[in-house]
Amino acid sequence: MGEAAIQTKGLGKRYGSFWALENCSISVPEGSVSALVGPNGAGKSTLLKLLVGLSSASTGEGEVLGKTPAQHENFLSDIGYLAQEIPLYKSLDAADHIKMGAHLNKRFDKAFIRKRLSDIDIPLDRSVSKLSGGQRAQVALALALAKKPKLLLLDEPVAALDPLARHDFLSSLAQAVADGGLTVVMSSHLLADLERVSDHVIVLAAGKTQLCDDIDTVLKEHKLVVGPKQNKLPEDGFSIIHETHTAKQSTLLVRVDDKKKLPAGWQQHEPNIEEIILAYMGQAKEGGAR
Hints:
By secondary structure, this protein is an alpha/beta fold.
């Protein structure tokens, strides 16, 4: 991974008195696959629309591939964007969509998309309305990739798919990333699916950024610790993200300074990325760290 493909600082979007996104500061490395996760209403779609230039920020600033997001060719030629509703014309077939894509995008690779759809047995002459949900998602992904983008933004692309269709879609995405030169940000609430293909994570909750980092770093810095309820962790070097208690025992998800040693009386375990993400969502719901 090299420079940042996406940088935002204090980015926010307000509709009247409601903040759909507030004080969002993230950095997404070039060549990464970043999982954008959070509960419904967390601001994921709002953030993606700001990054692609479909919406303008109320506060803060953002830079995508070194440019300010805007709806003009100079910016959009390097961006692939797949909205949650999978925007295809149901009366048209895949071949019609390919012709349209080639007309609208100078770098559009017709040979690439025809081979890609042929390899996964999607007919070019069948109207989109007669394709399965998984097939429609694959056509939309292939159209986005045929632009030869440097950045691909995907908004809940697998939400409506069955497990097999989700697996096939994510496998296709992983192959596209392996071919090189592509950065991906993909939003979803299906954590297990995202974990398969992602190496970076952004957690949004309550309209704000709760976490943004490389997944390996996140796993290294977080520990699940268990000890007697009366025991207290020192505040210096241990940040409590989430805690649960029984009559005798406390279980804490903590972010740990690697120079600090766990005090006597505590047992340490390695959490998985799903446990960490859910803890940050819970922290936001409860109003912040303790």
